[in-house]
Amino acid sequence: MANPTAAMLVIGDEILSGRTRDANMYYLAGELTKHGIDLKEVRVVSDDADAIVLAVRQLSDAYDNVFTSGGIGPTHDDITADCIAQAFGAHLDVRDDARAILEKHYATTGLELNEARLRMARIPDGADLIENPVSSAPGFTLRNVHVMAGVPSVFQAMVASVLPTLSGGDPVLSQTLRVMRGEGEIAGTLSALAATFSDLSIGCYPFQKDGAFGANVVVRGTDGARVDAAMTQLARELEL
Amino acid sequence: MANPTAAMLVIGDEILSGRTRDANMYYLAGELTKHGIDLKEVRVVSDDADAIVLAVRQLSDAYDNVFTSGGIGPTHDDITADCIAQAFGAHLDVRDDARAILEKHYATTGLELNEARLRMARIPDGADLIENPVSSAPGFTLRNVHVMAGVPSVFQAMVASVLPTLSGGDPVLSQTLRVMRGEGEIAGTLSALAATFSDLSIGCYPFQKDGAFGANVVVRGTDGARVDAAMTQLARELEL
């Protein structure tokens, strides 16, 4: 059976303007692979309501799971919760369970739970909260969309809260062979290998080091014996 | 007048599996901002023809420019040229101008221009070549889609070849104020500032350092005097 699929939606002008280098995509990709969920697509959109709503609807329809990153803080440019609610026609307001979490947190810190911070307790009706052990303000899951913070430490903690609740498939195993020849030298061999092992994904990633050309050949699949077999055949054919 | 818009399409299983951390998005975002082109959306898709063709069509329709990264090498998993041709109904075959570039390059290196390498001379009819000063195999521009390599050094060189040929707008200027208070403290001030300076983009990016909460407030716009005015007002209101 095929593994469950996923998409990621990164929300934020700061990524698209080149100010901030996204760290969450790389992290989520690795965690999903370990969990046996196939990340099929990532989109990055700006803090624009129409763009967010459209992307949420399209990705939610097309994939088993959608993970969003960014736009759930207390400031005016944090519009993700509004957009998720709009995408699914859900009512959005401060919810008692989320408010209770914030009240407890701010009571401890001695800071005021002001109007801006209370924005972070706005959760769509029907959504489940996602725990945030770092800074307490929760994320949420509505239908198949998991809404999480953009700050990497919080994002990672929320991924750790959500992943165990999701059905995973077979973890994808991969082996890499580093070959100090140009891609063009080994392309024929790889193409034949890919035809023989059509159940595996065989990728070739070129690099240059000290003026010489090389390539990492990566064989991926859920059946470890098949991955082994492909790597053995590859090494033999390349006479390594 | 509004600046020209752009989207980026990153093609490659290696990004979505978490094996490779994408470097090209961050680079392109910065270069486009300097050139006055607004990067509005990024998509990452796997080495899947249907997914690539669909994304190319949607992004080409929606934005002034599309930049793709990855999938134009000599191996079986390099299917980007085929997909671009398919997306626009263009004929694809080895083209004499591209073949001449490869012949010259491989004559110098003493390597054979074999069948796999000749794949890199497959260019859709009607496309303009993009120069590749790093490893010679060209990219190409078909309509408003600029097709470039995934290897960062080659991608960057191709961006440098293409950007001067594109109409730019006003470069977006930005100023950042680092505030050692939580987002929730300053959210009200920022919201009022955003209403006053509705021609600017005002973003707030929280961080934690040594257990304390802080935020970078970034004001962006094409009019330097307005950006200055907003920053001055912000600093005064926050009593910095």
How would you explain this protein's 3D organization?
- Two copies of one chain form a homodimer.
- With 240 residues, chain A is of the alpha/beta class.
- The first copy, chain A, has nine helices and eleven strands.
- The first copy, chain A, has helices at residues 13-16, 24-35, 49-62, 80-88, 96-109, 115-118, 152-162, 183-196, 224-237, and strands at 5-11, 38-45, 65-69, 92-94, 122-124, 128-130, 139-142, 145-148, 173-179, 201-209, 212-221.
- In chain A, the strands form three sheets. Chain A has a six-stranded mixed beta sheet, with helices on both faces. In chain A, strands 9-11-10 form a three-stranded antiparallel beta sheet.
- The longest helix of chain A has 14 residues, at 49-62.
- Chain A is elongated.
- Chains A and B meet through helix 1, helix 2, strand 2, helix 6 and helix 8 of A and helix 1, helix 2, strand 2, helix 6 and helix 8 of B.
